[in-house]
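Human:
Take a look at this sequence-structure pair and walk me through the tokens.
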Amino acid sequence: ANAGFPPQIQSNADACEAAEATKLLTDANLDVWRQYASSRDHVPEDGPHVDAASTIVRNREALVKDTAKRMEFEERHVDEALRKLTATLLTGATTTHDDDVRQLAEFLDDRMCVPRDMGAMSAARIKILGQ
């Protein structure tokens, strides 16, 4: 059975993913976002952070149940952390000092499938908060 990557390779892969997420948030890419959003009614022009927050709100019930089950937390605790994460995303913040928000963002980043669940730029906003 495959036991995964050796620790050093996994660490390097994680660092590369974090760098790619940060790269997606440059001003040039935000211009690309605005062009993308302008041709789609369902995509907020305000930025990928608003899209990430909107996706969380739309899928809140399923996210609460799945996260509570997999992280072994009470649903009310997960719901509160999701609300904090959504509020943090809406501010445009790229860091958080709230351990619940960071832990939830890290969990969602691991569970999320791009582009099925969310676009790359929106997912990058969650990834950055999970670091």
Observations:
- Helices lie at 7-23, 27-38, 48-58, 60-71, 75-91, 99-111, 120-129.
